[in-house]
Each structure stands twice: as C-alpha cells, then as structure tokens.
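Box 3.1 A note on notation
Throughout this textbook, protein chains are presented in two layers. The first layer is the amino acid sequence; the second is a token string describing backbone geometry. Keep the layers aligned when reading.
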Amino acid sequence: MEQHAPHLVVLSGAGISAESGIQTFRAADGLWADHPIEEVATPEAWDRDPERVLRFYDARRDQVRRARPNAAHKALAQLESRGFRVSVITQNIDDLHERAGSRRVLHLHGEILMARSSVDPRMRYPLRRGGIRLGDVCDKGSQLRPDVVWFGEAVPHFADACALVAEADLLLVVGTSLAVMPAASLLHQAPLEAPCVLVDPEAATLAPPGVTRISRPAGEGVPPLVRHWQREERLWVPETLLEAR
C-alpha cells in the first residue's frame, strides 16, 4: 500500500518524550531550571567550559538510555509497519522513535547518542555506551562534542524538513508548544489542502487558526487516530476526536 498511500508527516516535540520519563527543557521543573542555557547549550559555553557541557549531556544521555518508547511512539511505528507512508520530523535528540520501530526519522536538533567532530560536523560517531570525555578526538584529531544543535547554531536539516512537510497529505504535530523556531515555522510549509492536527494537553491554547486540536497527551491522543487510519486505510480525523477549531 505504501507506494500509493497518503503521506503522513509527524512533527514531534518534547511532550512525546516526556511521557517516557525524559525531562523537558522548558517546563517549570525542566532542565533549564538548574542549568542556564548560556552555561551548557551554546558554542560560547563549549569554548568556556567544555567539561561542564560534556557532563550535562552525559547525564541527558543516561536518561535517554533508561527511557522506553511509549504508546504514541509505538502507534506511529505500527502505522508505518502496516504500509502507510510515515515520515517523522522530531525536535527531540533521543532515539525513542527509532527504538519503537520508525524507519524514517529526521532529527532537527541532532542526536544525543552520537558524537561529532568539533571541526567537521560530517564526522559523526555512535555512542553505544558511555559518553564523551575531554581527550576523545575525531579522525582529524579534534575534540569530540555532542551531536546536538546548540542555541545560536544553524539547524542543518531544516531544508530537508521543509521538503518533507511540503509533501504531506496530513501533518500531525505531537507534544510541542510550537514555540521553538525555526521548527514552529514548518507548519507554514504544508500544502494548503493538507489538514493539520495538534495533539497536546495544551492544544486548545497552542493551536494556530485552522489547526485541528486534540487536547490529550500523546499517549492518549495518537493511538486512537492510528487505529482509525488502520481501519479505514486512509488518513482522516474522526469527528469523535475533534474539537472546535
């Protein structure tokens, strides 16, 4: 079915991973409450105190390794396994979509389970265990750093994400505040005729005009949608799950 199936493009954010126990950055008790952005997530922080930055991301990496995919991750992967065309664009740096079984995942902000050269971003290395230490170097002899996009850095895969959204027959936004740029602007890349659905507990206040909202956590809102799509073998939003736009 996949070759002729409508294309579902998913934009996922921190909310979907939070349901797996991964601490978010922007919540009141989130990561930035104890770790100011400028001290752990900027190029300047790296230049000033790389060891502190590495410790911060080592702790995040341990958290990701302990986490497990939740019902939303699994439902999206199952939809793909049933022959639907599903592309995931995630703002998250964890690998929960992949561990659930999704094969087409684009990480806008990098991958925490990868290291990369500090001089050549094309040189990337998987971190199957452990973390990064001062003195760990790439094949060119330069210090390895986390393969994540820091504040103030360009988002290298943004053009690829725009191209994917432009192909969407339905855009599903899950667990994001739509506050992080440039990712939030991806909604404007969708075809005018493509429906857009936001699944988030705060969807009623977050959804822009014209976006259908489902005010539920990802693990409660995504699986019912997937079950409907599988049963009908098409992408549509059942009236029973809709709220007024």
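Residues 166 and 190 are 5 Å apart (CA to CA). The chain has ten helices and nine strands.
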